[in-house]
C-alpha cells in the first residue's frame, strides 16, 4: 500500500456506550490491516430528545443526520451506525460501503428478577420504545402491558425498578455489547418475533466522493459478505414498505444452501393483524427478493395497515 497506510481514518459515531463499542469494533478491524484510526463523537437528535417516543420524533435519520453532515464536510472518513438505525434510502451523495458481521439477531427480555417467566396469558408490564415490539407483544401476549422506555440501556435499567416494570424488551446485540447478558430471562424466537431490518449488524457509511482506493480498503477490512447479502434483501424490503424505524414492519434474511431466505411482514399497532411471508431465491437477487416480499405483504393488506398507522399518527 502507498499513502493509504499513512492516513488516519476518522470514525464518526454517536457518544452512547453502545455506539462507542461499535465504533471501536470498526477501529479494531481497521487497525488489524495496518490503518490508523481516530474516533470522533457527535450528538444526534435521537440522543438529545429523550422525552418523546421515536415515532413522534419522525423516522428520518434521527440517529444519523449529524453524522452524515460530518461525512459531507469531510470531518470524518466513515460513520458507524447500528444498521437498524439507518434509513432505508440514504442521501444521494453518501453510500453504505460495509456491513459488519452480524450478532445474534433476537429480541430478549431483561428482568431484575432472575425467575421472571413470560407465560401465555401473562399480565406483565414490559418496557419498550419500539412500535414493532409493542405490536408483536400485543399479538402473542395480548394481556401484557407495554410502557414507553427510551434512553440508553443504563437509564432504562434504572427506570425499570422505579416505574414498576417486570422487564425490558431489547435487542440481544445491544444487551450483549453492554455486557448485561446476566439479566436476560428470555430470548424471543426469531420466527415469531422477527427482528427489525438490520438488527444486530453495524453499517459503515461514507461519502461517495471518498478516494476509490481508500473506499476499497475500508470495505475489504470491514465488510462481512454474508451479512451484506442478508442486509441487501432486508433493506430492499424496508425501502419498498416505505417504513422507517417507526413502522412495525420486520424482516430477517439468512443464507441457505440454495441462496438467501427472507421472512418478513408487518403487524398492526394493536397487534391484531399480522402479515408474514417467507421467500427464497438466489443470493445474487437478494434485493429483488426483499422487494418482492414487500410487494406481497403490501398486496395482502399491508398497505392498509400502513395507511391506518399514518392516519392514527395524524390525529
Ligand atoms: N433503536 C435503538 C437501537 N439501535 C440499535 C440497538 C441495538 C443493536 C442492534 O439492534 O443492532 C438499539 C437498542 C435496541 O433496539 O434494543
UniProtKB/TrEMBL annotation:
<dbReference type="GO" id="GO:0005737">
    <property type="term" value="C:cytoplasm"/>
</dbReference>
<keyword id="KW-0808">Transferase</keyword>
<feature type="domain" description="Porphobilinogen deaminase C-terminal">
    <location>
        <begin position="230"/>
        <end position="297"/>
    </location>
</feature>
<keyword id="KW-0627">Porphyrin biosynthesis</keyword>
<dbReference type="Pfam" id="PF01379">
    <property type="entry name" value="Porphobil_deam"/>
</dbReference>
<dbReference type="GO" id="GO:0004418">
    <property type="term" value="F:hydroxymethylbilane synthase activity"/>
</dbReference>
<dbReference type="InterPro" id="IPR036803">
    <property type="entry name" value="Porphobilinogen_deaminase_C_sf"/>
</dbReference>
<dbReference type="Pfam" id="PF03900">
    <property type="entry name" value="Porphobil_deamC"/>
</dbReference>
<protein>
    <recommendedName>
        <fullName>Porphobilinogen deaminase</fullName>
        <ecNumber>2.5.1.61</ecNumber>
    </recommendedName>
</protein>
<comment type="pathway">
    <text>Porphyrin-containing compound metabolism; protoporphyrin-IX biosynthesis; coproporphyrinogen-III from 5-aminolevulinate: step 2/4.</text>
</comment>
<dbReference type="InterPro" id="IPR022418">
    <property type="entry name" value="Porphobilinogen_deaminase_C"/>
</dbReference>
<comment type="function">
    <text>Tetrapolymerization of the monopyrrole PBG into the hydroxymethylbilane pre-uroporphyrinogen in several discrete steps.</text>
</comment>
<dbReference type="GO" id="GO:0006782">
    <property type="term" value="P:protoporphyrinogen IX biosynthetic process"/>
</dbReference>
<feature type="modified residue" description="S-(dipyrrolylmethanemethyl)cysteine">
    <location>
        <position position="245"/>
    </location>
</feature>
<dbReference type="InterPro" id="IPR000860">
    <property type="entry name" value="HemC"/>
</dbReference>
<feature type="domain" description="Porphobilinogen deaminase N-terminal">
    <location>
        <begin position="9"/>
        <end position="209"/>
    </location>
</feature>
<dbReference type="InterPro" id="IPR022417">
    <property type="entry name" value="Porphobilin_deaminase_N"/>
</dbReference>
<comment type="similarity">
    <text>Belongs to the HMBS family.</text>
</comment>
<comment type="subunit">
    <text>Monomer.</text>
</comment>
Amino acid at each position: 500500500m502507498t499513502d493509504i497506510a499513512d492516513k488516519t481514518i476518522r470514525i464518526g459515531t454517536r457518544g452512547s456506550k453502545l455506539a462507542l463499542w461499535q465504533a471501536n469494533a470498526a477501529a479494531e478491524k481497521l487497525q488489524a490491516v495496518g490503518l490508523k484510526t481516530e474516533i470522533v463523537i457527535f450528538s444526534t437528535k435521537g440522543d438529545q430528545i429523550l422525552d418523546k417516543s421515536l415515532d413522534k420524533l419522525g423516522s428520518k435519520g434521527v440517529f444519523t443526520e449529524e453524522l452524515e453532515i460530518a461525512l459531507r464536510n469531510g470531518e470524518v472518513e466513515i460513520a458507524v451506525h447500528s444498521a437498524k438505525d439507518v434509513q432505508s434510502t440514504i442521501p444521494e451523495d453518501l453510500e453504505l460501503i460495509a456491513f459488519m458481521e452480524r450478532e445474534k439477531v433476537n429480541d430478549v427480555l431483561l428482568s431484575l428478577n432472575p425467575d421472571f417467566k413470560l407465560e401465555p396469558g401473562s399480565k406483565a408490564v414490559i418496557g419498550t420504545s419500539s412500535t414493532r415490539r409493542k405490536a408483536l407483544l400485543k399479538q402473542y401476549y395480548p394481556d401484557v402491558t407495554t410502557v414507553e422506555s427510551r434512553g440508553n440501556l443504563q437509564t432504562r435499567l434504572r427506570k425499570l425498578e422505579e416505574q414498576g416494570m417486570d422487564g425490558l424488551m431489547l435487542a440481544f446485540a445491544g444487551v450483549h455489547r453492554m455486557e448485561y447478558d446476566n439479566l436476560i430471562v428470555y430470548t424471543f424466537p426469531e420466527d415469531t418475533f422477527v427482528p427489525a431490518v438490520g438488527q444486530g449488524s453495524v453499517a459503515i457509511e461514507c461519502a461517495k466522493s471518498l478516494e476509490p482506493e481508500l473506499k476499497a480498503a475500508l470495505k475489504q477490512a470491514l465488510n462481512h459478505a454474508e451479512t451484506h447479502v442478508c442486509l441487501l434483501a432486508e433493506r430492499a424490503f424496508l425501502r419498498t414498505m416505505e417504513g422507517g424505524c417507526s413502522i412495525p414492519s420486520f424482516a430477517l434474511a439468512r443464507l441457505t444452501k440454495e441462496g438467501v431466505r427472507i421472512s418478513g411482514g408487518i403487524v398492526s399497532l394493536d397487534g391484531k393483524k399480522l402479515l408474514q411471508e417467507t421467500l427464497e431465491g438466489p443470493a445474487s437477487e437478494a434485493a429483488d427478493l426483499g422487494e418482492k416480499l414487500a410487494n406481497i405483504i403490501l398486496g395482502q393488506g399491508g398497505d392498509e395497515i400502513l395507511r391506518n398507522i399514518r392516519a392514527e399518527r395524524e390525529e
